[in-house]
Amino acid sequence: MRLKLKTQGFTLVELLVAMAIFSLMTAVAYAGLAAVMQNDQSSLAHETALKKVQRAMVFIEKDLRQLSTRTRNDGYSDLQPGLKSDGGGSVLLEFSRSGNSNPTDLNRSSLQRIQYLIDEEKLQRLSWNLVDHSDAEPVKMTLMDGVTSAGVSFFSKEGETSESWAKPELPIGVEVKLTTERWGEIRRVLPIYY
Which of 5, 16, 94, 133 counts the most CB atoms within 10 A of its CB? Predict the structure, then answer.
């Protein structure tokens, strides 16, 4: 007696159904992966912008912690105060600061002149290794983009608040206000240590 072996396999319809299911699962998985990658890029852009805000505030705070009353000779026999702000121009703050490190033992002062300004919607920090500079080129650093407006307020020992400062003494605090396209208004109150 002969046994007939039956060969079993997939029919063409079964193969087509399996391929359709696999294709559908692949499309769903790809859409999910694309959404995760897009969210990751968005999160990275958000994180980078937040780090720029934090970095800018750290620079301002560190500079103001080293604030000095050292006046500046502008080269025309006029003395500029250690800290000044006109309250409405593009120059946000200009001041002298100490603590400029000198690791290579150059023959120079530990004082710097610092200026924060808004130029083409960018918050920039300019620094000079000479306080009494008249034509020296500053070191420029862009801290933030997209700054639409900025302002400062000064708190005096008498309890008064002013948007400009040109006094020989230092205030007890400074409020920095930045308005940005992404974050809206950012306010930071910084105490002055001396």
Answer: 94
